[in-house]
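Re: the 175-residue chain
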Amino acid sequence: MALPVEIQVSIIGAVFAVAGYMVKSWIEWWRHKRKERAQTIAELQRLQSLLNGAWTVYSVQQDKVKYLIQLLEKNHPRESGAGVGYEDKMARCHAAFDDEEKKTHGVIRAYTEHSLRSVNLELSEWLRSDVLFKTGVVASRRQEQLAENLFALEMHLCSGTPSLNLGFQISLIMR
């Protein structure tokens, strides 16, 4: 027994309507996913730019620190020899700085107070607003490592913990 033509046409129309709705829904989902992906890529590019900036400033500052330490070891061997680490050596020799050492130390402080501080604030803001990468709920081991490194970087930036080497953290994230 065949269905009346009107019912057959209605069924075919309904099937096409459902198929059309499904295709339209799939296209909307696909566009939404592409937009999400573009936003994710833009966020990662912004993070990379901030990290590149931080690494550049940090590297230049470290060159200045190494130069100052060489001056201190040459000009104040007793005071600098007793110190452990850059900051301790600088603190022990600070009262005896000559003009070149004072100038170099001032440049190092300026990098810390101005350049690194502004980049660190921007990195902190990026990390604070991140709801995707630090969660640890990720699809791959690389994303998991990124989440761990971002968490460590955030702890460093928030606490100012000297035991976490910022250069090391940046280099891990930049891999």
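Residues 79 and 93 are 6 Å apart (CA to CA).
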